[in-house]
C-alpha cells in the first residue's frame, strides 16, 4: 500500500505519518528527515542539499530521487510505505510513478491535509523538533514536560533552521508554486481532509478517507 501525504509545510504530514505507521504497518518515508540526517552527518548529499534547505528551496530532483530509490528498495518497504514530503513537484510525481512501477507498486492513496495559512505559520514558528527521534513539539500547544527535552526519547529539542519566519514564507511560496499543482495531478485518487483539529481526530479523518477504520 502506497500512501502519499500532501499538504503545506506545517500541515501535520509528519505527525500523521508517524501515527499511521502503527495503524497501517508500513514505514514512514520522509525525504525531509532523510535529508536532515544527511546534513547532520555531512555526507556528500548533505553538503549539497543544505544550501537549498536553509533557504527553503527544493533540493534538486536528481539528488532526492536517488535517495528515494534506495529507500523504497529496502526490505521494510516491501509491503508499501507512507510518503511524507515526496513528491514535491510534477517531475517528482512522474519519477515516482516509474520507481513504483519498477518495484511492482502504484500510488494507492493520496490524501491532502488542508490547514489555513495563519495556522501553518503559528505551528512552524513554535515548532521544536527532537534531534534524536524527530518527534515534534510546540512551545504553546504541545510543550515538552521538561524544557528542551523530548518526552519520548530524552533527546535534545531544537528549532529547525528553516522554521524561522522569512524561510517559512519562502517554503509556503515554494509549496504554492511547485507542490500545490500536484493536487490536480492526483485528482482521480485525491482525498482532502481538514487538518485543523487535534492530531488524533485528523488521523481518524485520514483513515476513513482511505477506507480504514478508526485508530
Ligand atoms: P520537510 O521536512 O518535508 O519540510 O523538508 C524540509 C526541506 O527539505 C525542504 O524545504 C526542502 O529543502 C528539502 N526537501 C524535502 N523533501 C524534498 C523533496 N521531495 N524534493 C526537494 N527537496 C526536498
SS element count, helices? 9
Q: Can you give the helix content as a percent range?
A: 40-55%
C-alpha geometry? globular
Mean pLDDT metric? 96
The succession of helices and strands, N to C, reads: EHEHHHEHEHEEEHHEH
Strand order of the largest sheet: 2-3-1-4-8
Proportion of β residues? 5-15%
Give the strand tally: 8
Radius of gyration: 16 Å
Supply the helix-strand structural class. alpha/beta
Which hetero compounds are present in the coordinates?
adenosine monophosphate
* Distance separating the two termini: 17 Å
Which stretches are low in confidence, meaning pLDDT under 50 for 5 or more residues running?
A: none
Main β-sheet: number of strands, strand sense, barrel status? 5 strands, parallel
Quick structural overview:
The chain is α/β, with parallel strands linked by helices and 215 residues long.
Descriptive tags:
single chain; 215 residues; alpha/beta; five-stranded parallel beta sheet; three-stranded antiparallel beta sheet; 8 strands; 15% strand; binds adenosine monophosphate
Structural description of this entry:
The protein is 46% helix and 15% strand. The longest helix is centred in the last third of the chain and has 15 residues, at 165-179. By secondary structure, it is an alpha/beta fold. The two termini are 17 Å apart. The protein has a five-stranded parallel beta sheet with strand order 2-3-1-4-8, with helices on both faces. Adenosine monophosphate is lined by residues 9, 31-32, 35, 52-53, 56-59, 64, 85-86, 88, 92, 162, 171. Adenosine monophosphate binds at residues 9, 31-32, 35, 52-53, 56-59, 64, 85-86, 88, 92, 162, 171.
